[in-house]
């Protein structure tokens, strides 16, 4: 899944915190950033400031139920 270009990143990250399992941002190179980590959120915000870089990554879920929590932000 990809993040919508119009998604509010702050609200997205707030909802990530209530997910039961890990939510990952995966870069095209295969690097994975665990979005529940504060340090990783900082890195993710830096990535999000570049729309092309943000759109090139993929959101992965350890638990598919968490996908429903974040559905409004994803396509």
Could you characterize what this model shows?
The structure is a single chain. With 75 residues, the chain is α+β, with helices and mostly antiparallel strands. Helices cover 40% and strands 15% of the residues. The protein has helices spanning 9-16, 38-48, 51-56, 65-69; strands at residues 23-26, 32-34, 58-61. The termini are close together. The model has no long low-confidence stretch (mean pLDDT 96).
List the helices and strands and how they pair.
Elements: H1 9-16, E1 23-26, E2 32-34, H2 38-48, H3 51-56, E3 58-61, H4 65-69
Antiparallel strand pairs: 1-2, 1-3
Rounded mean pLDDT score: 96
Kindly report how far apart the N and C termini lie. Answer: 6 Å
The strand count comes to 3
Q: Largest sheet, described in full?
A: 3 strands, antiparallel
CA-based shape: globular
Q: Strand-residue fraction?
A: 5-15%
Number of domains: 1
Summing up helix and strand content along with how strands pair, one would put the structural category as alpha+beta
Report the uncertain regions: none
Briefly summarize what is shown.
By secondary structure, this protein is an alpha+beta fold.
Keywords for this structure?
75 residues; alpha+beta; globular
């Amino acid at each position: 899944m990809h993040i919508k270009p119009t998604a509010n990143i702050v609200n997205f990250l707030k909802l990530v915190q209530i997910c039961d399992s890990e939510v990952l941002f995966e870069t095209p190179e295969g690097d994975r950033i665990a979005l529940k980590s504060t340090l990783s959120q900082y890195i993710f915000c830096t990535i999000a400031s570049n729309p092309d870089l943000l759109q090139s990554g993929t959101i992965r879920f350890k638990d598919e139920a968490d996908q429903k929590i974040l559905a409004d932000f994803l396509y």
